[in-house]
Here is the input.
Amino acid sequence: MKDTAASTVPGPSSRTWDAVVVGAGHNGLVAASYLARSGLDVLVVEKNEWIGGAAVSRELHPGVTYSNCSYVFSLFRPEIMRDLDLPAHGLQVLPYESGAVFKRDGGYVAMYRDHEATRREFARHSPRDAESYDRYSRDIMRYCRFIRPLLMRTPPDPASFKLRDMSEMAYLARHFLALGSEDAAEMVRFWTMSISDFLDEYFENEAIKSYLAVSSIIGTALGPMSPGTAYVLLHHYMGDVDGNIGAWGYARGGMGAVTKALASSFLAAGGTIRENAPVARIKVREGRAEGVVLEDGEEIRARRVISSMDVKRTFLGCMDPSDVPAPFLEKVRNFKSRGSSGKLNIALDGVPEFTALPEGSPCIQGDLHFTDTLERMERAYDEWKIGRWSSDPFQDTMIPTLTDPTMAPPGQHFMSCFVQYCPPRLEGGREWTENDRDAFGKAVLDQIEDYAPGFKNRVLHVEVRTPRELEAEVGLTDGNIFQGELTFDQLLFNRPVPGYAQYRGPVDELWMCGSSTHPGGGVMGAPGRNAAAEILRGMKAGTTKKTEMRDAYPVI
Amino acid sequence: MTDQRHHFRQPLQRSPFHPRIEAANVLNAWAPWAGYTTALNFGDVAMEHSAIRSTASVYDVSPMIKYAIEGPDAVAYLDRLTLRRVAGMPVGGVQYTAWCNDAGHVLDDGTLFRFDETRFRLCCQERHLPWLLDSAIGFDVTIRDVTEEVAGLSLQGPTSFAVLKAAGAAELADLKPFRMAEVRLGPVGPVTVSRTGFTADLGYELWVAPERALDLWDHLMISGRLHGIRPVGTEALNIARIEAGFITANADFVCAEHALRPDRARQPDEIGLDWMVDLDKGPFNGRAAIRAARRDRTLKWALVGLDIEGNISAEGSIVYLGGRKEVGQITAAVWSPTTKRNIALAQLLRPWHRDAGDKLRVEIYALRELQYHKLMLPARVVKRPFFNPPRRRATPPAMF
Amino acid sequence: MPTPSFDTIIIGAGLNGLACAGRLAQGGAKVLVLEAADQPGGGALTAEFAPGYRVDRLAHLVTHLDGRMLSALKPEAHGLNWAVKSMPTTVLSAEGRHLTLTGAYGASAPGLDPREARRWADLRARLLRHAEVLRPLREITPPLPGKGGAKGNVVALGKAGLALRRLGREEMQEFLRMILINVHDVTEESLTDDRLRGLLAFDATLGAFLGPRSPNSLFLLWHRLSGDAGHIRWPSGGMGALAAAVTRAVEATGAEIRCKARVERLLTDGDRITGVRLEGGEEITVSRVISTINPRTTLLDLLGAREIDTGLVRRVSNIRMRGTTAKLHLALREAPEFLGADLRHRLVIAPSSEAVELAFNAVKYGEFSAEPVMEIMSPSAHEAGFAPEGHHVLSIVAQYVPFVRRGGWDAGARDGLKAAIMARLEAHAPGIGALVTASELLATPDIADRHGLVGGSWHQGDLAVEQMLFMRPAIGIARYATPVPGLWLAGAGSHPGGGISGAAGWNAANEILGAA
Here is the structure.
């Protein structure tokens, strides 16, 4: 499929690029764009015949565009959109409506954009919870406000005595201590808790708790009863749509619109993209990266190599082990990127009718879930731990075409079903087979059919993706959507591995800019931006142009 | 609309008085308040304010959040919850009070009604059910949200007693401020009347079952026809309440449990409620923190009334000391038609609530035909209320 | 009875109450310790469960007894003897392929293949190094985050900071990476031997509401190792004898201990503590009360929620106390045969990290593990006096067993739990069931009922990172003082937590002496 505006003109092979970026996902393109805007001669190589990485839209059923991987938009840094002028390159963000978790007794709990509607909805289930929700939102928002300024800063190395690291540590300490003793203590407690325990302190209704727990498990290899999931919740709440913190929206045209706009911005800045150019190896000579070798043997020379692939794929898959220090490789091997999710992308010839929803309910335009207790979520996770896909899966399901008119012909719809839990390999380390994949897909479709009888009859086409497909197509090791799990041992200065959290690889002029680096995944763009900042900072010769690169907007 | 699932069609609730208010709201000036559709004005704010100060006004207070607090430990519970002593409160008494969290930061203010030895109602701006329930741990008391079970109408103004007398409640002549009584009003049936209000004028609040609300409205309107009665909206009431020097949650202070920025929380002493704090009544929420703040002199803010030069209202302005140093913000301001002064409520950094002398300046940006005029107007701290007529307290009240 | 003039009352004569009493008495206080049970010791208790058979009823091993208490009170001079100073651990295998670790937390593990032995040596050294960083923190009042929070602890905090720096760049980075990691991943990174991985998973999660895959679980292993650097001790005569020796040592400092004196109410004048009322009505006037019993019981039941602010009531109500541990005591007519394992060792049944995780699954849903994991200790293998000649007793700590069981804890449920434990024992010691002449099962709620351990939590509050240091037992009361002047907390519910230790009591006493 050639639906991108990307130029495919290969540069002359004798050419030495200022930078070659491996992978045309959003982070690769963000880093590439900043560098190109600084006057560097940048080439992005992409293994697929399309660009986008995990922010991709493909038309797998005639006329219906999918958001094949990521499917909602919130975390992408607004500063980057502005620096790279993405709206001018076609990016449009649409807030979306409401959502609901369906209950097995035929009822549901909804959330609406309107605060009072949500309060009254919660009050149907628990008057106390309806009022607790305000304090809960306030507390979560306080923690978001703490985190947001850290997203676009290079993490310090706490073990270093360098002035820059020490002053950044001092900044972190000041930022933390500014909270005051009690609030700081509350926040540490929050970070180290399970979402289940945290929600128990505010709410009594299981279905409400289940709804609020959704964001704490998405993409993780943890259940809601695992400590550390409260942080994951924050990771999904710290974004915004036009300053509306915690809100999620769609990219008009599907998530591929994000990378299309980035590619357009990059090309306008003089960059070059080559699709169908899978990298076999990153070339290193005398401890310095000097280019990449494609699978067909073509060599591309560059003054620096920037990998937006995850660290395992970069260092274990695309490098000669003798080029990389052994202790570093060991750390990378221990980097955890176990996939936990699968996805169904479905083309429909009509809107499914969820029997629980009253006529005219806006919830159908929002996120829909079928797991009404934390126990069901946790049990779904228990199955993942022993290498099974969840027999009663958790879903984050939505129909973007009810909001976005561009993705399907009128009357037809695209339905995105994000599914947990789904292991990278099955019991006993067995690889997925086609039969396994179909059975997994059936479990998901059956679950929807239970709540929307007749749903299956509307299905025109289904794409079933397990971690295996994610790895094969997008290149995410073990299908982990964040390019590495979001637990504290892999966050901030620990991401991807301690001592290498500043986007520099263990080899000179080899850089990392994917979601494996701080601040992690979720179509944020921040890793790419931060990596570009470090690269530009380290350029002794300086750059011919100066690009706009904003610091994070202040939180007031 | 009996199906509770359908609230998304009409997110804001409607007060039991809504049919009458809707009919009178000729400009359709609506605003949400506490989850209800409420009238901002009925077409003429000046006339409405004038009714509050000269004749009689009705204002729908049904959206106020109301909690029934009942049980053998109700007094002990409320003494632990709130700042003032409840044990000495008479049956039939009403108390303006406030309550704090552990840090001594104000969660809300409100009025507490005592129906008998063990039954109370707390009436406030914000929702506090989780806090009230958690505070009940260890007490034999039940807490219930009765907001939708009680309709409230505030009848304020110099002729308000005349209206009630005409309505058939002459016995209210003996009702003192901050007391309540049950009366029967002709076609309405039993009505609870408290001599309370938000205007610093003669006034009453009338509480009935929602199904009697329209009867009450109609009966008052008929009874008040000769006494200048008219419905008023939030805008007119707001002028009156500033003249009265009353504070409101979310305008003059932020409820501590909803404050996103921790530094926005305030102790009672910082919003002019220091007189409420009864440190000798035994343990209550925030006592230790309030005591410590007073002892260690860590109080940062004070809430004051300002009398500002000129006649341009100073809403949202920053207050300076000597024109340079920022010492506070205006939280509410209005040109007062009653006192003919430019008045405001402001939070000032201590000690400038006391020591500023004549050095306070208020920075006003007045938008006139697309251009801002920047004014630095002198202001001085004055006593609240700005308006405090004797008729407010006279018992029996005058007829006009 | 005339009340002698005491200035301090300590509620509870467990190790923490005793330590606190001894320290305060040495510091000049006039201390009365009130104990509800008929003997001091609290969780350090040896009792007969069948005629002629005795076991340590709750805790049955010592891993971090407070060193300051030992050197200041000298219980050794009052009869404390160590029957075992470094008990080896044997991880049982149903096939008889046991793994024995000896010395300080497996200094030597001869059963490992040489490559695994090297990996273990590396990991063990790292664990001990990291635990060492935490050690200074055990002995201080928890510092608070924020300005002035380190008050009085600057030296100890400095020591911890220095210890962290001394690790060197690489190890410090690893410390910060591993601080909130889960033990399962660590063992998967570093080891291949399932027995060893199972043991680490078991030790990290013992007594916790966590599985080895739960983030933060490695920290609990550090916590355990920060006591006696991995040595496991057992006192001659059992825990009861340890308690008796410490009691004598405390009495020698001048503190008085009264048993069968259950405090029913803390008395205040609306401002500060004025005394206590005992069950039976006796009131004792005193201006300082230190409670070493459960913090929630202390504040919400003995003091009463109305004496403290709602926010604190919330926090105290939110302290998680979810015991997961049951005890089974077996009287055996001869020595059981664990396929060649040495009965004098600590015997652990935890076949793999995955098996521990699988066992944990159940308790999340209010069920007990179908295949529990367990730690077995036989006092009779060490000393006479615990069972008739030739007979034996086993003390078994088994998990995971919920406090609130779905469907309730009826006799059938208890039988089911016992059968599940016995089935695991039978698999590792064929024929053991036939040797049993008497038994006693203490399911989680039994432990709660009989010993006042709310929720069956041995630590008076789950040991979990979010309930440690300045968050233990709850934010706002982590520095032993409470908002009520004169009332202090000094039990396992406070930093650094429970186990046979006394550290919390000692720390609290230091704080009180410093505040005086």
